[in-house]
Sequence to fold (701 residues):
Amino acid sequence: MSREEPIPRFGHKPQVAFFDFACCEGCQLSVLQLEERLLEILGHVDVVTWREAMTEQSTEYDIAFCEGSVTTEEDVERIKRIREQADVLVTLGSCASGGCHNELKNQWSMDEVRRVVYGDAADTISTIPSRPVTAVVDADYRVFGCPVSLPEFMTVVNAMLTGQSHQPPNQPVCVECKLNDYVCVYEMGKVCLGPVTRCGCNAICTAYGDPCQGCRGLMDAANIPAMLKALKREQAHAIMCAVVQRHELSDDEIAAKLRIYNNWPEFDLKEAQPDDD
Amino acid sequence: MTTDAAIHVHHITRVEGHGDVIARIENGLLKEVRFSVVEAPRFFEAIMRGQCYSDVVHIASRICGICAVSHRCAALQATEAALGVEISPQTDLLRRLAFHGEVLSSHLLHIYFLAAPDLLGLPSVMPLISSQPDIVRRAMRLKQIGYDLAALVAGRHTHPVAMTVGGFSFLLDPARTLGMRERLANILDDLEATVELFASVELPTFERETEYVSLTHPDRYAFYSGEIVSSDGPRIPVAEYRDAIGERVVEHSTAKWARWNRDEYLVGALARFNNNYEQLHPPAQAAAQRLGMEPPVHNPFAMTVAQLIECIHCVEDAIELTDELVSRGTDRGQQQAEVEAKTGLGVGAVEAPRGLLIHEYEYDSAGKCVSANHIIPTAQTQANLNRDMQEFTPRIMDMSPDRIQHLLEMLVRAYDPCISCSTH
Fold:
């Protein structure tokens, strides 16, 4: 979701706030790893609110970086207030930008997940089905990933500060994997979600021989029916076919894998079944 | 003397996650003081159900962005125990090396960015960027080496990619550790400067003896593996943790509290320091002497200092591990053990930067998770923090409400709580 109004160009040193919702806070921590580049950014903006790093706080800010999933009624109101105050809202990471494993809990009733974790005290815990920030308010910029990729974060910050728009990359991870000349992990006998997952991570997992788990979410044009046909041995490349045979993936297992980062809105394999023709 | 004060810090700053500090003083009497975890739970123990074991360890690291390697390692150990997988000595060594990276980055984040501003009388590290840029650069350099060390071994610190059930998904070329070894040797000067910085500041004086719980290992200062030990005596294998540690849900907290021999116990750097001091590398022990830390230390504010001492230990140990790696080389035959799905229950325990971390998983015959349990350091030690607050507050009630509030916040920060992790 992108807002239609033009992105404001800042006539002054913009004031920046960081906010976190339900998450591991790993995206903020990744930003702290920018070192010298972070100091450079801090020369162009004033950070006025960042609870994890600063005691200083302000209710006035131009740019809001938001991390995490919205999982309580209070957080629904909180993100709306932030959206109202901020000229520019940037979502950091998949939790906020499109969905992540937090939405796995939406497979069950909230009563059930509360009971599994809190037992008899389940009623004292309030929670609503998890959703990304972008399901509640519009974001001007989205940075995907679990966690965010720092080169992409820098590209977004540059675009934002110079008043340009930024479209998230919309090709499969396979493109970056092949450009880097990495060995396809299917050839190593592993099931990889790279063919349907939005790139922008420079294929960091397959670089280490680990399959893509889809943390950046499905790309817009992800061809799930084709992926299913391949994973179900109906129309697979020979190597993929051997891997899939070895793992004997059932429909449920394929759905479980795709659901980890794609359960907002709820992922339904039946809707993605390949057409018979 | 403050006769009346109502302190309510909503979402205390410079800690990981969301917690509140509440204190109420009426007519010179302390009516209430507590730290409440108000973090929104993500229900990891529920969402693991039905996931394949290889996806369980992937999701497990997402419990925490600061201690992602710890969660991954605890989940790996639990899963390997459940599936009966033996890891190679090479895998054990590499995991220990990645672990040092995490402890360094986590401790240094706390020491410089979260705790130090209190000791320097600042609201955050931000004012230092212009006034003392050298200190900020040093802090960033130190923290970065931890991330880079973990990334060298595991592909990335947050969240590790190459650590798989049974081993690693790639074979590290030992030659790639040579540059890191040099950086580690050079960073000792920065740590020395940090020791001098901490030697020059005064911590609040407050002592309360408590139960100190950590892992302990016969051969080394325990981080990656060991048995669970209490300063009150008992030592138990990690698989028997349920016989000792009891979790309970309490009012005002979305993270569970825990007890063992006493109603509250401390975990983390100070517990490890008190329980395993003799196994610290000599330069770390020398730093402890310089900083006036002689075990057992009962001042909870000294947790930050214990973390600094551990940083020196981790750098020394990481240098030894890289030397060992270079001398013995890496072997593809030891990279990845065979793993087959089977029914089983397994427990894994590590010393995360903030203390004892336990994961437990039960798998069905297809390798799907049936149940999960996570015992998190900050959750375990909440009861101890609250007890400290109850005993500390009466001693500072002659101060202004602002000062009382600040000292209570400092006490919470000394614990370096990892709150989203504690609630998970």
User: Anything to note?
Assistant: Residues 173-272 of chain A form one domain. Residues 63 and 88 of chain A are 5 Å apart (CA to CA). Chain A has two domains: 15-161, 173-272. Chain A has a mean pLDDT of 90.
